Amino acid sequence: xxxxxxxxxxxxxxxxxxxxxxxxxxxxxxxxxxxxxxxxxxxxxxxxxxxxxxxxxxxxxxxxxxxxxxxxxxxxxxxxxxxxxxxxxxxxxxxxxxxxxxxxxxxxxxxxxxxxxxxxxxxxxxxxxxxxxxxxxxxxxxxxxxxxxxxxxxxxxxxxxxxxxxxxxxxxxxxxxxxxxxxxxxxxxxxxxxxxxxxxxxxxxxxxxxxxxxxxxxxxxxxxxxxxxxxxxxxxxxxxxxxxxxxxxxx
Length: 251
Prior knowledge:
By secondary structure, the protein is mainly beta.
């Protein structure tokens, strides 16, 4: 399987369990007695069981929000230290530093003047797979802590930059998948502590992302399509889930 197909498969797997919009309970009649007697009352939805309407039943007071499903990004088996570097092109620079006992890293650069650095430290078990296909892309990955870190990232285009820091706590799984397709995109992710997951994707040019997740059980899915999408400045602490899609014409 080619690197692009491998990361694409990992992305599809993560999307299969990614956080989705929560649906509220739909069996509640809205307040204000809209289904009572009188002219024009009791004839519409949800009074008639939503008949004649392709949408869902209306939502009223007392609805409950169900938690979003987790992002699925399994941890590959890692034992000992393994480092791989593949470079095709001119003036590419890559560096892998491993001091953790169990660490796996692979960097593939296909193009010119790409820069990538991976550091795996601490007592954590870490897995990192980074692909750069284009020119003048930069990638910086730091994985540490005492748990499990997993990262897939790919840059398809020119002058894209990504910076990821992961520090999983003991007995916890910290995952991230970052994809950038286009030119001049920038993404930054800092995950610390608990069972954080992240799924970031940028399609277009000159988009910006910046995320900080610290605490317990955070989940994030953020997709940007088009050009010139700004950084939303998202920071999560605690048991949170989030799903964001931001788009601008021209992507």
